[in-house]
Predict the structure.
Amino acid sequence: MSFSTEMKEELARILPENQCCQLAELSGILSAAGSIDLKGRDHLTIHLSTENPSTARKIFKLIKLIFSINTEIQVRQTNRFRKSKQYSLWVKDTEDSKKILLKTKLITMKNGSISLKPSNPSKLFLDQGCQRAFLRGAFLGSGSISAPEKNYHLEYVSDRSNHLQDIQNILKVYEIDGRIIERKGYYVLYIKEGEQIVDLLNIIGAHNALLELENIRILKQMRNDINRIVNCETANLSKTVQASMKQVEMIKYIDQRIGIDQLSPVLRSIAVARLKYPEASLKELGEQLNPPIGKSGVNHRFRKLEQIEKKLRNRKKETG
C-alpha cells in the first residue's frame, strides 16, 4: 500500500463532531471528485467517482449521517493487470441531490432556479474547523502525496481551476504556499516544501502520516549531516596529504642539495619527523617531537625550510 493510500485511509477514519464541519468535508469531496448532471430544469443527479475504497466509504457515511440518504454504489475493475477498482456513487433523486448540493454550498437557488456556479468555500467556511475539513475532503477526493523517502511532493488535481483557487485561498490563511500549474489538460496545485507539507498534514488531521514523514525527514537530515561531515573530513584529509607530499618533496630536495645534517637541530628534527610520518597532520607531527610543539610551531619550522629550499633553487639557477 502506498504512502498516499495509507494517508487517505487515516483521513477517512476522521469524523468531525460538528455537522457544519461534516458538510464542509463533504463539500470538499464533492468539489474534487463529484459531478452534477442537470437535465432540463427539473432533473438533478450527483455522481462521484474514486479509486480509493476508504474515500467511497467516507462519502457514503457522510451522506447517510447528515441527510439520511442512501447512495447507490457500483464497483468495477478498471485494470485487470493492476487489479485496481473504480467506485462510483450516485444520488439519483432530484430532491435529495438538491438538498445535498445546497447544504454543501455547491449550488445556489435564485428565483426558484438552480445555479451551478458554486459559492466560494474559502469565504463560506470561515470557521477553522470547517476550513480544515474542506481541505481534508478535497484531498480525499483528488489529492496525492509522494512517498517521503523519494521526495516531498503533495498535490491536488482538478479539471476546474476555480476549485484549486478555493483550496489555495484557504491554504494562504495558514501561510502555506500552494502553486497552481496546468498539466495534461488538468490543473494541479502542488506543495514541495517539506515543512509546509508537514503543516498541511497537521491541519487536515493526518497525524500518523505526519509522524512517519517527520521520522524520514530526520533520518534524511542525519544522513546529510553525516555525509557533510565525511566530505569535510575527506577534503581536509586530502589537503593534509597534499601538503605532506609537498613537504616531503621539499625535504628530499634539501637533503639532496646540502644534506639534512646541515640543518639546525630544530629544523632537522621536523624534517626527520615528516619523512617518518608522511600522513600525519601538523598537530600530530608536533606531538612526535621532543619536546612536543603546537601546530603554529610546526608551521613556523616548515616556513623556514621553504625559505631554505627557495634559496637553494635560486642558487642553482644562478650557477646554471
